[in-house]
Design a protein that fits this description.
Largest sheet: 2 strands, parallel
Number of domains: 1
CATH class: Alpha Beta
CATH superfamily: Periplasmic binding protein-like II
Structural class: alpha+beta
Distance between the termini: 50 Å
Number of helices: 3
CATH topology: D-Maltodextrin-Binding Protein, domain 2
Radius of gyration: 24 Å
Helix content: 40-55%
Strand order of the largest sheet: 1-4
């Protein structure tokens, strides 16, 4: 009987620790606001998240380059917008 009680106690302790981990974890508060293209044009700035890698965006000899960078630059120029890049340097993706 004591062996069974020991296993139940260990299980409950692990369950309690898991629940504490889940519920006490700080959640990031996002201040995202969905805006449409007209609002972006009024603001005059296009903010884009982009991955730093060998095809999307990279800096070579001090000059930004990359396929997505070129497309975004042309799009911003065509619509008279200032391009602001938020570069993600996550090596795991």
């Amino acid at each position: 009987m004591s062996k069974k009680l020991k296993y139940i106690s260990i299980f409950l302790l692990i369950l309690l620790m898991f629940l504490l981990l889940v519920f006490l974890r700080k959640k990031e508060k996002t201040t995202e606001k969905n805006i449409d293209f007209q609002e972006i044009k009024v603001k005059g700035e296009l903010i884009v998240g982009i991955s730093s890698n060998s095809t999307d965006y990279f800096v070579y000899r001090g000059n930004p380059m990359g396929f997505q960078f070129e497309i975004l630059t042309q799009f911003a120029e065509r619509h008279n917008l200032k391009l602001k890049l938020m570069v993600e340097n996550d090596l795991e993706t």
